[in-house]
């Protein structure tokens, strides 16, 4: 009797874990991601650094905790920088959440990708960035492939 009860308990726990991760995996696949507003744009030590809002619509009834962002930044198909997540952030169920990622790109790579010198880069008003990569939660990832034009005229 006791052995049968332990078996049912273990099977129930395994089934619950399976449903838990299956629901999160499906919720992550259904995320709709777009870019929000850039914040705290600054130029320091040869790097262009800012915090980028990712606006995430989660139509599922399951909340997610984003704990990883592996997003590369491109200009004219040339790699110029990386996005990272400083701390885990919650993606609310049945609604829109904003996840902040930190972006660092080198000014030299940026100028090279645009075909300008660094001094010519300072005269530009906007730069179009492409975000390619994924955002992760619970060991699963959702792909990101979006573009944004960043107004850089006020920083230089």
UniProtKB/TrEMBL annotation:
Record keywords, A-Z: Membrane, Transmembrane, Transmembrane helix
Domain of life: Bacteria
TM ranges: 6-22
The name this protein goes by in its record: Late embryogenesis abundant protein LEA-2 subgroup domain-containing protein
Organism: Arcicella lustrica
């Amino acid at each position: 009797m006791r052995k049968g009860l332990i078996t049912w308990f273990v099977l129930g726990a395994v089934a619950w874990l399976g449903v838990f991760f299956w629901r999160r995996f499906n919720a992550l696949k259904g995320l709709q991601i777009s870019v929000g507003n850039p914040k705290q744009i600054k130029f320091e030590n040869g790097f262009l650094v800012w915090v980028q809002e990712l606006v995430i619509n989660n139509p599922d009834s399951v909340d997610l905790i984003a704990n990883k962002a592996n997003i590369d930044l491109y200009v004219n198909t040339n790699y110029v920088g990386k996005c990272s997540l400083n701390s885990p952030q919650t993606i609310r169920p049945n609604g829109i959440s904003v996840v902040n990622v930190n972006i660092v790109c080198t000014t030299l790579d940026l100028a090279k990708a645009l075909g300008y010198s660094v001094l010519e880069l300072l005269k530009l008003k906007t730069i179009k960035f492409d975000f390619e990569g994924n955002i992760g939660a619970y060991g699963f990832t959702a792909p990101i492939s979006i573009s944004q034009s960043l107004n850089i005229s006020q920083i230089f």
